[in-house]
Specification:
13 helices; 2 domains; 6-stranded antiparallel β-barrel; FAD/NAD(P)-binding domain
Length: 496
């Protein structure tokens, strides 16, 4: 049987080594010899593609490119007395990437496996912010940052203070990604390319010997007395580790691999999953007129529930063919995450297009224009305040004649127009399916230690990111929570 030896020298060591895990882009740099519970490992052989037999192997197919794709690794063990900790991080999204980096910062000897079901890392990170990666917020006050989480803010406090947005920005700058803060306080790479954010981790993992398993589907996790056994779909043998960090995300953006697998793993290890709902989604209205102004946007407006003025949010939005979308609408959808939205029982909302302007002041503006342009039509006078297409929708809704001469329009009707612009009535009948950015709900936070991210139910299990019952508004807050919880989990998994 033909065997080929995988041998490399790195800037960290001069030892010939190979790997016992799937490799892809990280096969150029290999870690120094490490001891395991089986003793020091110093030799790994990679079997030929043509060989069907696995000799003393962990049985994991290597996800590499080139001439070793699909081969298997032979793990030669020299039994000794010392051992090194092994940590498996399941999920290569934002939380998993930062957890791996933090664990390596904490220890250069711990053996780290990052298990990813896709063929590349950080797919959701790359597409966030329209592909630009809104990696955090420019808001400096941590207490203010925490107000942007409708669920989980209290639990998140310790992780957030330990690794706040400013520290996240500095971390990426220190790792070669220059960032910028835009007027709306969203933070992006100066390159406007989310791939640069992920490349930071790819380079880091390559340099520090973190073992990344690509195309690796976890089908089960079993707790054992001395750790965990992770069963992979393509492997006969389980991967045994001392600690597990679950960072599988929620079930939004399913095309990126976030299919909710982690919930089942957490449940199998004794955890409760709260009710789940889509968050940060566009909303569909019972009214059809928004389609007439689809594409019309406003830089700011205030949304509130007709029956509950306490539920309110402010920001940019846009009318769509189905209803409304944009940052303010996403925030509203998060606040309504667990409301039942149906055409039969829609939720009534009001949109204030002139937030900060008193209705009486708005009426005086309309009256001033009416007195100045007495020969113009009602529609044209109102179009001095908002686009004409929206005015036409408003007048239809109020049953007013668009062509009526402004001088003939009563004060009462002008007051109705001002009131409409201050509280545009819409009925939300549903969420736009498949449009959500995050999942509301997740692993019950009462079962997690907020100081370490370790499970209170299953010692040695840590959880971070969207799998937890934490979700934030748009503006970099969800990635921020992923970075800070992932970092805390990674550091704690080594130290606890």
């Amino acid at each position: 049987m033909h065997l080929m030896c995988l041998v490399q020298r790195t800037k960290y060591n001069d030892t010939a080594l190979g790997m016992c895990v799937p490799w892809r882009i990280y096969s150029d740099h290999l870690p120094a010899p490490r001891c395991t519970k089986y003793g020091v490992r110093d030799t790994y052989d990679v079997m030929s593609r043509h060989s069907q037999k696995i000799i003393h192997s962990v049985g994991i197919p290597i996800a590499t490119s080139g001439d070793v794709r699909g081969r298997y690794v032979r793990h030669v063990r020299d039994h000794g007395t010392n051992c090194v900790m092994k940590i498996a991080i399941i999920g290569g999204g934002a939380a998993g990437l930062m957890a791996a980096a933090a664990a390596r910062e904490e220890s250069d000897t711990v053996e780290i496996f990052l298990i990813e079901k896709n063929d590349s890392l950080g797919k959701k990170v790359i597409i966030s912010g329209g592909g630009r990666c809104n990696l955090t917020t420019g808001v400096e006050n941590t207490r203010q940052v925490l107000t942007n989480y409708p669920r989980g803010s209290k639990f998140l406090s310790k992780a957030m203070y330990a690794f706040p947005p400013k520290s996240v920005r500095v971390w990426f700058e220190d790792h070669g990604v220059k960032v910028k803060t835009e007027k709306d306080m969203r933070v992006f790479p100066c390159s406007n390319d989310g791939r640069d954010v992920v490349r930071v981790f790819e380079k880091l993992f390559q340099q520090t010997g973190i073992k990344v398993l690509f195309n690796a589907n976890v089908i089960g996790i079993t707790k054992r007395d001395n750790g965990f056994a992770i069963k992979l779909k393509a492997s006969k043998n389980a991967l045994t580790v001392d600690r597990v960090i679950l960072t599988t995300g929620g079930q939004a953006y399913r095309n990126t691999g976030s299919t909710g697998d982690g919930y089942a793993f957490a449940q199998s290890l004794g955890h409760k999953i709260t009710d789940l709902a889509p968050g940060l989604s566009a909303l569909q209205t019972k009214e059809s007129w928004p389609a007439r102004v689809a594409g019309l946007s406003f830089p700011t407006a205030r949304f509130s529930l007709a029956g509950d003025p306490k539920i309110t949010c402010q920001g940019p939005f846009i009318f769509t063919h189905k209803g409304i979308s944009g940052p303010a609408v996403f925030a509203l959808s998060s606040l309504l995450a667990f409301h039942q939205l149906t055409p039969e029982r829609p939720v009534a909302v009001k949109i204030d297009l002139f937030d900060g302007v008193n209705q009486d002041v708005l009426l005086k503006r309309i009256q001033f224009n009416a007195s100045k342009y007495t020969k113009k039509s009602l529609c044209n006078v109102l179009a001095m305040l908002v686009p004409k297409t929206l005015v036409e929708c408003m007048l239809d809704d109020l049953s007013l004649e668009a062509d009526a001469q402004i001088a003939a329009v009563s004060k009462k009707d002008l007051m109705r127009c001002a009131a409409w612009l201050k509280a545009v009535p819409l009925n939300i009948s549903s969420r736009v399916a498949g449009d959500e950015f995050v999942t509301a709900g997740g692993v019950d936070l009462a079962e997690i230690n907020p100081s370490t991210m370790e499970s209170k139910i299953c010692p040695g299990l840590f959880l971070a990111g969207e799998i937890l019952d934490i979700d934030g508004f748009t503006g970099g807050f969800n990635l921020q929570s992923a970075w800070c919880t992932g970092r805390l989990a990674g550091k704690s998994a080594v130290d606890v």
